[in-house]
């Protein structure tokens, strides 16, 4: 039984929280949510999870299902304290992301009159200088992976370095998971690197979908496929309605 | 005996003036003081600086051209991620936006509530929040660490508008949902605060509804209490009611074209709050 692309992405998202211990996993989006819950049910059992509102949940229900056991209270103001305190690893989306890891979710175009007004910076400026921030991009394209973002909401490596030690002290971007590949910044100049290609994706395909030059070394590994137990958890426990297949099509 | 502060939404709004800085409580499309926002739309108050964890409060006021400047970290309808009226106003270049991080926002209100000129935070460093807001300054820690942090200026408000589940006539107010949001901070950061609620109750009734920690807003900072059942509609006001998703979808759909929006405002926003509730009841019956 082979895994779909969405299922490979679910495991790649889950892997972001491996070894994180007793911190809050904050997933934004369907695949990151499946990933965080999968991580807790398998290799990162100590993670804290919320119901998406104000409650910390002790059980790990399916997407959209109500949790049965509440283990804590985390209204927005206390959530913000958890951000500043660093016991959190968020996986956010990005309308634009550049090779240094600068992320934009606020607007496309100029500040005075944007061509497209998006959500606003939300917590991205604070997340990125306080605790690990990974990114999830369900449609890897040159419009998202761009040369330069229109507004730096989440802080990338170059901008953090320019702002000095108070900005770099807790700054960490562990990985970027897309529908084509897993990327990170483990290069000498802290620019984006391909960590693994998803099964079936070619280097040419990845480069064509990226708006800046991306080096794909020969022999770069394949993103690992889910094992049988992970597949069972994804399909039967966490996402029985297969919402994952709508976020990342086969 | 403390004064009875009960008043109508229109009376509360009659105390506001054009050009004021108004804080609006709630978060996204959750527990927004919509009855007060609707009263504001019936008034001629305009040229506002709105400070909000933005939802349809921002969308409605922006669509009506009442907002000169918005201070916000986001504007969203939650189940509909992008607020269409806010987007349209921004894309027409009509709305000046001062963007700040969610935590910067909280510390700005906290500074105002504590009568401090600023509070230091790490959030914002390295981001374009610093460049997009030219008045923003940093401050160097006077201690051994010497860290240079963002000095978030106090977000002092001329008035705050919030909606809670219960209140007494003197202005003590109780939330019964899972999240207080920042409504107490909005009230404390403001020179005047107006609290609408689902039901005005005798103070003795608070204890039956929840523990003392549910008494979020204290009367010392409240100037008016407005009994407004359904006053957060169409946003959520848990546990009294959830978001009216069908109505919110209709609101967002109507944003797509000016004729549809004129029809929507004519149907729902041309009368008083009683007319609004009657029109919503009709809408709900039709949808059933």
Automatic annotation (TrEMBL), chain A:
Coiled coil: none annotated. The keyword Methyltransferase does not apply. The keyword Transferase applies. SMART domains: CoA_trans. Keywords: Transferase. GO terms for molecular function: CoA-transferase activity. SUPFAM superfamilies: NagB/RpiA/CoA transferase-like. PANTHER family: ACETATE COA-TRANSFERASE YDIF (PTHR43293), CHOLESTEROL RING-CLEAVING HYDROLASE IPDB SUBUNIT (PTHR43293:SF3). Belongs to the 3-oxoacid CoA-transferase subunit B family. This is CoA-transferase. It comes from Streptomyces albireticuli.
TrEMBL record, chain B:
This is CoA-transferase. One of its GO terms (molecular function) is CoA-transferase activity. The keyword Transferase applies. InterPro entries: CoA_trans_fam_I, NagB/RpiA_transferase-like. Pfam families: CoA_trans. It comes from Streptomyces albireticuli. The keyword Ribonucleoprotein does not apply. Signal peptide: none annotated. Keywords: Transferase. It comes from the Bacteria.
